[in-house]
Design goal:
Rossmann fold, alpha/beta, 10 helices, 11% strand
Amino acid sequence: MKQEKDFERQAATILKYLRSDMRYDLEKIPRPFFIELTGSPSAGKTTVITELDKFFRRQGFRVWRPQEGAEVIRHIPRTTPDYNTRTGLYALSILLDESYRHGYDIIIFDRAVFDAYGWMMYWEGKGLLTPEQRMIFQQFFLSDFWVHKIDMAYFMISSPEVAMQRELKIALSSKLGETTNPATVKTLVDRYMAAYTQLSPRFPQLRLMDTTHLGEQEMVAQVATEILDAMESKALQNSR
């Protein structure tokens, strides 16, 4: 029967084979470039994400666009802060996990930690969070342990009138949702603008983009230009 030292010797041999700088050292194989897009309904977020995903994949990048939290978290009603806490945690778990893996070059979030920050302002306005509770949640989601892993983040907004036109353009029904109605869109636009004012001095990777007067091609080109510039700058800096 094998002795303890034999088990340890075999384990050491296997680990020596598996453990290499090329596999474990984040300096040698960089983490993915993380992008987050969030904002008010029908501001063009999904259009931009779809085109970014298509462009980068066709250029040879390994790209992942995780499913939006709203499509995953359906067992919690959208009438409580629990909902946006859970969708924020869903995105955060992906951000943390993929920061230590090398499976993708680019990950594009359809709402992540900056989104959770903005929604806590919304719930305070609804009277379902106290100012102290709102601040605790916001500080958690934008913790220095992980928020700087988001390389670029966009708050995309649009006027309620244009948002409703976009929302109903190809809809099968004119019935509006809980967050896709003019009053709520207006409230959310105000929240995202306030969040940007608060956060932009601290987070230079954050952008506010009003798409009210932009066509689809214009908004896609603007975001792509800024993201490519930021990625190229990081690549050149890290290659020196």
